[in-house]
Amino acid sequence: MTVGVTRENIAIVLQRPRYPENIGSAARAMCNMGFHRLIVVDPGIWDEERIRRLATHAAGAVVDGIERFDVLSDALAPFGHVVGTTARLGGQRPVLKSPEVLAEKLIDLSRNNPVAIVFGSEDRGLTNEDLKYCHQLVNIPTTGFTSLNLSQAVMVICYCLATATRSDPPAFTPRLAKRIELDRMYEELTEALVRIEYVQPDNPDYWMSRLRRFFARLPLRAGEVGIIRGICRQILWYGNRRYEEGSVDGKTMEDGRPLR
Amino acid sequence: MTVGVTRENIAIVLQRPRYPENIGSAARAMCNMGFHRLIVVDPGIWDEERIRRLATHAAGAVVDGIERFDVLSDALAPFGHVVGTTARLGGQRPVLKSPEVLAEKLIDLSRNNPVAIVFGSEDRGLTNEDLKYCHQLVNIPTTGFTSLNLSQAVMVICYCLATATRSDPPAFTPRLAKRIELDRMYEELTEALVRIEYVQPDNPDYWMSRLRRFFARLPLRAGEVGIIRGICRQILWYGNRRYEEGSVDGKTMEDGRPLR
């Protein structure tokens, strides 16, 4: 059994978001990843209709539950651990270099502690004043263009928190072909390919080796071997039928017309 | 030394996106993560101003370079490996259970092969018809509410691809068959299988779907597609030869002996 972060102890905090659409998109992203506590501090515009349009109906409950504050310090008061997000690396504060590293830390921390993850405004990010309230900073690694859309940043963080140490359910595996089924398949395949002169009859093993390598690239399933054997049998049947058709036509075309 | 995916060989394909804003947001997310090739197929609305507003100035070059197509098959023709994104698990097709697993696979695959990652429309995702072109599907794991915003889904995939690294030396990867080579192979295969009556001519797609699933289990190499197409041609040749043999024998066996 594996454990992940304790989602109900983690809150997303948007500090001075400018656009209601980003609040709504953040709520939807949270909902996708199983997070439900959203705190909004001093928003530039509060327009619930625009928020809800991007949140979609599914994240309606997250929007209903939004906690609003005027100042960041009040919003963060009850939290035992506060993480700030930043596009900048370096400076005086230690920055966790990826959301994955953060997620690993939060698995233990969030078990018994309310944790806040704070995102700054779209244009300026978190100010030095805001950073004072953060125990820790995390950076989302980018390539070239560092400025993520606010709700995209929320998604990346929530995704990484949600997927940290997930236990994999065993994949469904259909029955694989037994060795004897494979051997018969290769016999029938060789016969069919010799008949259609795709492989040379004097040294079929040489010619078959490429096909064997191809099929060996994946463990063939019993059903797939059945398909291939069925096709081989149909090739032989087809040859016999065409022979009969030609034979009948040959008898009736005694006038010397060219064979079709 | 660590290796990652080869970004310049990876394209993001949006199939029938409804909203220009999502195209723009996807472009920005790509740009954040260092991906630059964006393909848009049959968009609901093409409004470059709305696209650019969400892309921001930084992703302007990605928007400039957008390749537009009317149909998905044309868009995918040059790609050696096509990955579809789906919110659904289960069903008959194998679905990679996370973007991380996909990313690990693409580290080798993207080195020498153009790879397309296809996202369906906001309301319906990828249809069964669209899925026919995909070698593989990937699911973004969610908790509860499975429907991700389109550009959020693009971000999660791009983020996972961008951050995947591996220290192993890369395995050798032969050239994979391009989508157009695969399409021709399926055409020739259908013709041959109809001829030998392995599939019913009135509904070949139904019968071919099992074979497509089989071949989709592994990325077919160009040389392997050549083998299969060669066999198909030989089957047709064989039918004609057998017909001629029967025809000649039919003329010479006037004494009523049974056809061999």
TrEMBL record, chains A, B:
SUPFAM superfamilies: alpha/beta knot. The keyword Cytoplasm applies. Residues 10-159 form the tRNA/rRNA methyltransferase SpoU type domain. It is found in: Cytoplasm. GO terms for biological process: tRNA nucleoside ribose methylation. It is an enzyme of class 2 (transferase). Its main location: cytoplasm. It catalyses: uridine(32) in tRNA + S-adenosyl-L-methionine = 2'-O-methyluridine(32) in tRNA + S-adenosyl-L-homocysteine + H(+); cytidine(32) in tRNA + S-adenosyl-L-methionine = 2'-O-methylcytidine(32) in tRNA + S-adenosyl-L-homocysteine + H(+). GO terms for cellular component: cytosol. Keywords: Cytoplasm, Methyltransferase, S-adenosyl-L-methionine, Transferase, tRNA processing. GO terms for molecular function: RNA binding; tRNA (cytidine(32)-2'-O)-methyltransferase activity; tRNA (cytidine(32)/uridine(32)-2'-O)-methyltransferase activity. Its EC number is 2.1.1.200. It comes from the Bacteria. PANTHER family: TRNA (CYTIDINE_URIDINE-2'-O-)-METHYLTRANSFERASE TRMJ, TRNA/RRNA METHYLTRANSFERASE. Catalyzes the formation of 2'O-methylated cytidine (Cm32) or 2'O-methylated uridine (Um32) at position 32 in tRNA. NCBIfam families: rRNA_methyl_1. Homodimer. Belongs to the class IV-like SAM-binding methyltransferase superfamily. RNA methyltransferase TrmH family. This is tRNA (cytidine/uridine-2'-O-)-methyltransferase TrmJ. The gene is trmJ.
